[in-house]
Amino acid sequence: xxxxxxxxxxxxxxxxxxxxxxxxxxxxxxxxxxxxxxxxxxxxxxxxxxxxxxxxxxxxxxxxxxxxxxxxxxxxxxxxxxxxxxxxxxxxxxxxxxxxxxxxxxxxxxxxxxxxxxxxxxxxxxxxxxxxxxxxxxxxxxxxxxxxxxxxxxxxxxxxxxxxxxxxxxxxxxxxxxxxxxxxxxxxxxxxxxxxxxxxxxxxxxxxxxxxxxxxx
Length: 217
Known about the structure:
Order of helices and strands: HHEEEEEEEEEEEE
Helix content: 25-40%
Shape: rod-shaped
Number of strands: 12
Strand content: 35-45%
Number of helices: 2
Radius of gyration: 37 Å
């Protein structure tokens, strides 16, 4: 923005003081000419002051506009509500290693960051998130079996659940993870290790995957 040259203001002020001093010390010598000159100086000073006040108002308006647009692009994202919870609508029997568990029955999906077709949560903003995985398995008559699930972030493990040797009772295992995610980072659940027959209980809140944004950066 072009700045107004104010270097002449001190000279106008000095001239004003000199003229005023002359009028006070020599009131009869000033006459009509000095009075007219003083009026002209006062008029010019008033015009300069009005121009400066207008420029200050314009600058304040521009600052307010910039703050508004900045908040539109950042504040909305930071204040966005992000939370989800989904369960298995039906049991999954003998999934293979590397299989992504798709929790297809959405209970909550604030911010629409969880995809119940692929079973993947995608971070909408940079921030700190909390995730939880609850998995249940019905009794298995097999004498020996192992079943491990990993909670993954971009192909890096951030949690696990083991469902091993449950021959007589239901097993219910829980893990949580608090992690920092960048926008577009992905979190999901996948089968890490299997041995023998195994089943993940579906329906009726037996197995759940959920998470939420604690705070954005």
